[in-house]
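Re: [ENG-882] Designed sequences occasionally contain unexpected residues at chain ends

Forwarding the minimal case from QA. Structure tokens:
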């Protein structure tokens, strides 16, 4: 997932009760008169409450890629969409590692596999209804997958795992918008509560795959393609009252949602509003003043806000410095000259001063220096450093400078060259890192221009559109990435597998397409031996880094701010930010 962990695990029902009840958990955010406590939301639930009423106000410095559950790939939207869109499975609402437990959601249970892991069957809960009162069926789940995976001309955001791994027994199928009478035979719905997936190979993580919002049901009769975002039909506890493109959305309680068929959601606030395009420093100020409930992006307060917040004991007590499970990095395009030469890419590995990048964001509160693709929180991580320089100082160390110049010599550019780096215009921390990278590379004669694009269009129209990246000379692209699910495949596949490259909504910004790496990923995910899979992820990480497709910068930490009035607040490791499922207000 695109980006912008407690030490105990409880059973599902007990954790769900802890999250929304008025007892238990950590009251460090002001519960029962206690002073707010730094990192209280990482180790427990802050302000647990069943209080109903009021309005939860989320603010965002940009716009989402989409609020359509089938057309989004930002981590915060996968998190927030669960309020109005129920996938087949989801993550248990709990702080820390408890939030990594996968549980049934729309489905009545986890999947049943057969045919050596190539067939998966799910049964959804009976009697479910949409916000308009019509019944939810498995045919709607099948249709949701068809529209999100087989219609890139309409739904360009999001991964295409289903397209890649379902049996291709309908090769002529063009998706539901071009082929309204077609049928994707690799998904069967023998009755209204059963859905069967037929895969081309074993896929050990399939229960994780169907936790994607792409499996949230969509009634075909109500779908109007790209405009569906303006009138999403809810299957969750809240439904859209209004949506204004570029401005925001308001959600209210779904009258057809039933607690008897949903043990993890509550209907606490009267309304939930999401306000778009608020400057990040203004979002920070509104949180501190109590004029907003949470920053929905979950990327932490801006560097400009940090010093004052950290130096004020009361304000610091409202912070949770969350290990997001994300990697901040510079993608190096293998398709933009001169980076089609691996030695030019390796020169970037040696030249970038990672300490200056860390300092630009405010120091280690925003993350630890990274040397691998997989963060330490993801299964399969192995510690290594292929491009080591003293103190991670890159070209600001004699050794790093010499190594970078040697690689430039080997790629035919001993004096350097010019290129561009892209960054998201509404993310001040990302721009600050890009400026630090720019300064590092100048030391070796590489002149970098910084090109800024809005988050909401960064992947559809700019860095994630290869033709645009090529024509605008985006040799380098700022990126932050978190796992689609918490293992090596869920982290690696969409950013280093050549089969994942798309014309728009692309996440493999490096356009790395090494057949051996692609095959390593396919082989590993089909292995039913968990230990062997885990080892494979580390091997694939090293194999990819040998090709220098990206410069790892930081294993991200995000200082999140929780105002006193916010209830049921905790960091979930599933998304590396606050869990938005049952947030309320006092």
């Amino acid at each position: 997932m695109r980006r912008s962990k407690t030490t105990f695990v409880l059973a599902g029902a007990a954790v769900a009760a802890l999250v929304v009840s008025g007892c238990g958990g950590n009251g460090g955010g002001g519960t029962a008169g206690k002073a707010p406590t730094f990192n209280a939301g990482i180790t427990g639930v802050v302000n647990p409450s069943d209080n109903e009423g009021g309005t939860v106000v989320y603010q965002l410095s940009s716009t989402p890629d989409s609020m359509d559950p089938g057309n989004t790939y930002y981590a915060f939207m996968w998190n927030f969409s669960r309020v109005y869109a129920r996938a087949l499975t989801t993550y248990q609402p709990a702080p820390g590692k408890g939030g990594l437990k996968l549980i049934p959601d729309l489905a009545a249970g986890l999947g049943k596999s057969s045919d050596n892991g190539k067939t998966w069957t799910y049964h959804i809960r009976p009697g479910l209804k949409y916000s308009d009162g019509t019944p939810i069926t498995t045919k709607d789940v099948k249709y949701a997958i068809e529209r999100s995976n087989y219609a890139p001309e309409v739904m360009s955001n999001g991964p295409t795992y289903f397209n890649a791994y379902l049996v291709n027994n309908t090769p002529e199928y063009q998706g539901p918008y071009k082929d309204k009478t077609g049928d994707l035979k690799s998904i069967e719905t023998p009755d209204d509560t059963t859905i069967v997936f037929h895969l081309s190979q074993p896929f050990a993580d399939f229960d994780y795959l169907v936790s994607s919002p792409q499996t949230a049901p969509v009634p075909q009769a109500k779908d109007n393609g790209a405009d569906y975002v303006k009138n999403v039909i809810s299957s969750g506890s809240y439904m859209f009252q209004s949506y204004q493109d570029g401005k925001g959305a308001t959600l209210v309680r779904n009258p057809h949602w039933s607690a008897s068929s949903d043990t993890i959601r509550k209907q606490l606030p009267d309304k939930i509003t999401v306000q778009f395009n608020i400057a990040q420093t203004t979002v920070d100020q509104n949180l501190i003043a109590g004029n907003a409930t949470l920053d929905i992006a979950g990327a932490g307060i801006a560097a400009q806000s940090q010093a004052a917040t950290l130096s004020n004991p009361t304000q610091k007590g409202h912070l949770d410095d969350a290990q997001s499970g994300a990697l901040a990095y510079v993608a190096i395009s293998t398709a933009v000259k001169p980076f089609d030469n691996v030695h030019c890419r390796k020169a970037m590995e040696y030249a970038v001063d990672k300490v200056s990048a860390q300092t630009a964001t405010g120091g280690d509160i925003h993350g630890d220096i990274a040397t691998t693709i997989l963060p330490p929180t993801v299964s399969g991580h192995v510690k290594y450093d292929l491009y080591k320089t003293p103190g991670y100082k890159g070209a600001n160390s004699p050794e790093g400078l010499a190594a970078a110049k040697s690689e430039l010599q080997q790629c035919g550019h001993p004096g350097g060259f010019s290129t561009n780096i892209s960054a998201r215009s509404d993310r001040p921390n990302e721009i600050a890192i890009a400026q630090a990278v720019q300064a590092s590379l100048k030391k070796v004669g590489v002149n970098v221009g910084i090109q800024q694009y809005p988050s909401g269009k960064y992947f559809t129209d700019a860095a994630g559109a290869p033709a645009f990246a090529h024509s605008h000379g985006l040799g380098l692209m700022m990126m932050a990435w978190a796992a689609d699910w918490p293992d090596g495949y869920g982290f690696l596949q969409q950013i280093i597998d050549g089969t994942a490259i798309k014309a728009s909504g692309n996440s493999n910004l490096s356009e790395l397409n090494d057949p051996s790496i692609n095959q390593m990923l396919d082989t590993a995910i089909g292995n039913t031996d968990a230990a062997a899979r885990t080892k494979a992820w580390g091997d694939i990480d090293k194999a990819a880094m040998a090709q220098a497709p990206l410069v790892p910068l930081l294993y991200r930490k995000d200082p999140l701010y929780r105002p006193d009035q916010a209830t049921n607040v905790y960091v979930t490791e599933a998304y590396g930010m606050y869990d938005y499922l049952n947030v309320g207000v006092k």
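QA comment: On inspection the terminal residues look reasonable. The first helix runs from residue 12 to 20. Proposing we downgrade this to a documentation issue.
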